[in-house]
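Hi R.,

Here's the chain you asked about this morning:
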Amino acid sequence: MIHDAQLDYYGKRLATCSSDRTIKVFDVTSPATGGATGGAAGAKSMTQIKSNTPTHTLTGHTGPVWQVAWAHPKYGSILASCSYDGKVLIWKETSTGAGSGKWTTIKEHSLHGASVNSIAWAPHELGAILACASSDGKVSVLTFKNDGTWDACLFTAHATGCNAISWAPSVLPGSLIVPHPSGTSQHPTPIQRFITAGSDNLLKVWTINTNSTAPSSGSFSTPGIDLTAGGGA
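And here is the predicted structure, written out as C-alpha cells:
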C-alpha cells in the first residue's frame, strides 16, 4: 500500500512511500525511452509514469513508511521520511558526476518511542527545520546548525498520540503590507508556528518560546490556542 506521494519544489521528481518499508524516487519530467507523444515537451503522460521504474529505491526503515517530505531546494536535494518503526530518516542526494546522484542517510532521528506519523519542513526562511509528530504523543523539532550537526527539541503535545503536523507561514498575516515607522526594519520578524492534530480530538497551535527565562532555549509552547475538534472530526 502506498501511503504518501510528494512532488519536489520544481515538480520534476516524485517521492513515494509504502508498507513495503521503501521510498521510491521517480523522474516525472524526462521523456520516456522511445520518446513521448503529445503533451508538453519533456513531460511524461500518466501512463508512462505508471509504467516507469523508479530512479532510486531507498531502504532503511524497518516498518511501513507513512510520509515523505522534500526540503526546500536551497538546502540541496534532501528528503525526509517517517515510519511505524519510530524513526525519521533524512536523506540527501549527492552528485556522482554521471547524471543521477546517490542517496545517503545524513540523519537518523530515533528519540520517539512509537510510530512517527507525520513530518513537515518549516518555511525555508526559518532554516532547515523539520517537525515530527508521533503516536507517543510527542513532537520533536530537528534544526540543522551551521556546524553541520542537528539540534533536537522534544516535548509532549497530546495525551493519546499525535497524528498530523503542519507549519504556518513565517510571517503573520498582513505584516508585509503594514506601514513601518521611519528608521525601522521593513522586514517583519519571522516566527515559528505550527499546528498539531491528536487522537485526543484536539488541534493545538504551537509557537517557539523566546522568553529568556524559559526552561529550555528554543522550546515550544501553546499560545493559549487549543482548537477542539468536536465529535472526533
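One quick note: Confidence is low (pLDDT under 50) at residues 32-39, 212-217.

Cheers,
M.
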